[in-house]
Amino acid sequence: MKAKVAINGYGTIGKRVADAVSAQDDMEIVGVVKTRPSFEARIAAGKGYDVYVNSKENIDSFNKSGMEVRGTIDELLDKADIVVDATPGNLGEEYKKLYQKHRVKAMWQGGEDHALAGFSFNSEANYEDALGLDFARIVSCNTTGLIRVLYPLDKKYGIRKARVTLMRRAADPGDIKKGPINALVPDPVKLPSHHGPDVNSILPDIDITSVGVKTSTTLMHLHAVNIELKETCSEDDVISLLGERPRIMLINSKDGIKSTAQVMELAKDMGRPRGDIWENIVWKDSVSFDRGELYLFQAIHQESDVVPENVDAIRAMLGLEADGGKSILKTNKALGITA
After folding, report:
1. Domain hosting residue 159, numbered range
2. How far apart are CA 339 and CA 336, in angstroms?
3. What pTM was estimated for this model as a whole?
4. Do residues 104 and 168 both lie within one domain?
5. How many domains does the chain have?
6. Do 93 and 154 share a domain, yes or no?
7. pLDDT digits over 230-278, tens only?
8. Where would a tag sit more exposed on the chain, N or C end, judged by fewer CB atoms within 10 A?
9. Statement to judge: residues 229 and 161 lie in one domain
10. Which strands sit side by side in the sheet containing 105-108, from one edge to the other?
């Protein structure tokens, strides 16, 4: 029997998680929830996903648009083993009550606070701790990307401190309502940003401080990472360690990949669905030591890097696989991640 997965919120993350779940041989989508009959709802139906609405009041708008819905979220939850909540942030508390009412396991995205689920998840760092949990939170795209680098470095060499500057995309490509259009915005002005504490929700012993700058781009985030390690190692040691990680892709500026725009072009040329990059992109030639401290640049595709983490969390929470490494390999193989 395949695990039955519901998706509440079929937007940027939800639609990607739905497709990723559908690619697995041990789980299936039993339905997705939309609030209005948008093009995404129509595409979901065209892919064979049963479409549900978040309230009875929204059924009329679907009927008027000629779209059939299977019912309300209450009916969907009665069919599901677990629900992936990909709704906009700050709705989690209300939906949690609904999930508890239907006795269904649930997971939220990084827009919600750690306290909502009481557990924040990363596939490599704490998979086994998620086994059998009722609730979990997948940390944000930036935090996921940071943990993928910090966790192996800390495990191998120990981290004395980490300082990170995040140059953040202002909005996703399809979002026409946000800016800035022609500005760089300290975000937040009062330091630090939330990403350091978010990392500590999974790696509590790492001394990390982060700052953020919102930029005039929609493509990717760019991180400038500075780490002081406890044990001595070389640039080649770091490159070798990161190159062995299952969700880090090393690139080289000498190959003509010098910007996030070229990274996204690489994804398209690789034939990735939606041009997605599920891995961290680390510039191999940026890895360097200066005065004993490690520096590197990495790019994070905000629309997709948390998608495989969602799949692994489903597998852990439902007890489909006890070994985190095996789950990662299974998820990667199904998605076509070769890093």
Report:
1. 141-300
2. 9
3. 0.97
4. no
5. 2
6. no
7. 999 999 999 999 999 999 999 999 999 999 999 999 999 999 999 999 9
8. N
9. yes
10. 71-72, 51-53, 27-34, 3-8, 82-85, 105-108, 135-138, 120-121
